[in-house]
Design a protein that fits this description.
678 residues; alpha+beta; Jelly Rolls; eight-stranded antiparallel β-sheet; six-stranded mixed β-sheet; 23 helices; 18 strands
Amino acid sequence: MLVAFLVRAEQAGRLPTPQLLCDEFVYAELARNVAEEGRLLFRGEPLHLSLLYPVLLAPAWLAERMETTYALAKAINAALMTLSVLPLYLLGRRVMSPWWALLAPVLTLLLPITLLSGLLMTESAFLPAFLLSAYAIFLVVERPTLARQAFALTTIALAAAVRFQGLILAAVLVTAVVLSVIFELRAEVPWGRLRYTLDRLTPYWLTAAVLAGAVVAYVALDSAGRDLGSYEVVATTDYPLGDAWRMTRLHLADLALTSGLVPLSALILLSWRAFAGDSRTPAESAFLAVAIAGTAWLVVQAGLFTSRFTDDRISERYVFYALPLLFVALALWLERGLPRPRIATAVAALVPAVLVFVEPLAATLRPGLLPSSLGLFAFYRLSTALEGGVDDVVWVVRVGSIAAALVFAFLWRPVARIAIPLALCAFLLASTRPAAGQLRLAALLAEREPALSPHRQWIDDAVGDADVGYLFADRADAFATSKTMLQVNFWNPSVRSVFDLGAPELCRLPAHGARIDRATGRIVSEDSRLPQHLVGPADLELAGSRLAGQGPLALHRVGRDPTLLDSVEGVYADRWMGAEASYTRYVGPPGEAVVELSREFFTPETVPSVVTITAAPGVTRRDVLGPGERKAFVFPARRFPLSLRVEIRPTFSASGFGGGDERDLGARVEFSFRPTGS
């Protein structure tokens, strides 16, 4: 565990900045508010994506500098991910010897998905919570005392507090209890099956009462109009059974492939024996009931969710929690001496291989697998290295699945007990390397964000603890502008609020609506007062003092009523205008407004156009702008706001002269203002 923690912490330290929209930034902001105010707030508003994970991260936000905070947060993740093997080992010890019980923790710590400890995501806390709950459910199934039931129900609530996906553990508990009764009926064949079943289920009255109470509470809240917040859409969406079944099969095939196939074969074989009444101990039956229920419900839940919310993409982050249970099943099979009854062995060897053969996993191999599917990403990376690409990977996987089936069914037992664990360790290590490299590359690319380079905390350094508002103006690339805003917010905690000046950000997170009053230039928010420090696009000139700037952003200190210095409309990013453009100067000392129009950098084949510039009612200038000409028009500015409206007709298109630009263009235009005496 110590070695695994140090390795994962070192790998996480190579990630210089968060990279995943929107989860990492949301949990970071929630953790900061927990540390500062003791509440789950995002930009001042309650947001309950996770009740416990931000609390676990919150101590990192007690550090003074964000570099230290970020490093501590990732170290907390690595510690949580590593601690997950403690309940896994305790579970293994209940059914096998100490040395074999170590196998599942070792394989779990080698999983590629443990690289998620470098990202601020709930997986790091949910893995230990899930495995602790699985252990508690095992104890209940083994012997249903009231204390054990209370412990299991508490761990389920704990897992759900980390991530609402943990609610499926309630279904795992019920299913595991039912399976354990079935195993006992198959093993003992009592005379009164119904009476035996009732006697066996009666001790679970506490569990039944609590779960029934939870269902009644949910129905009551739903009837009262209360919802689940961000997860309401997940709970109320209709899921097409055909799509859900297809995605469930895909996730099961992915689970088989990324585990190395043999662990799933081991679980199938041991389960076959349990259904045949051939389990050696009650503890073994209890474990198999938990493993079957946990694996099945995770796969079904992932199939349902991805069929509607992830564009049919495999998401291992929803199912990888079953892998440690498969590893325990493998260790149990090895410790028992590799039992191989003929029919059970044939079925157990063939099912994973057939899944991999039949399900179209190859169609899911694409660059966007990270960070949701770290295990599958290794196969995508292999496809880029092979000459035949994905087709070659398909054959590699098919050959590997046949080899795994033969090893499981026929490899000499003394050799198999050593070779299988070593082969799985090598497979998991090989799968981890490309994912680790890609995660680091993505973080390095995110770090090159112009708003973060060369100083990530440039806003905090300029204003200290002052309250800063972010003016979010949606540009052509909503993803890029949203990423910039979230990165700046993360590294500069002084940015406490966001004001949308148009289309909302990509992540649809809490923000204040705002608009620019074009008549006065004032920035107006209907639901919140704007702070006196504002950061926004550098081309959004504000009246006041410009304190700092970096990349596409500028930081201003403004007055009580934030106002634009000026605004420009109708001009493209390359400074070309179409038939109409306008310039408004809202505040300033007396001076001159200058309009410069140019066609000197364009083909001389354009026809002359009439230019009309209106400064005020009755104040109009007209001229002719011909090919290759550049002209300037000066207007006195004594009263504000001053508005200039430019019209050019006729326009032209470069496509008419053999160019590729199909825009209707008038001229290149530059607006400027010169105070008197400058």
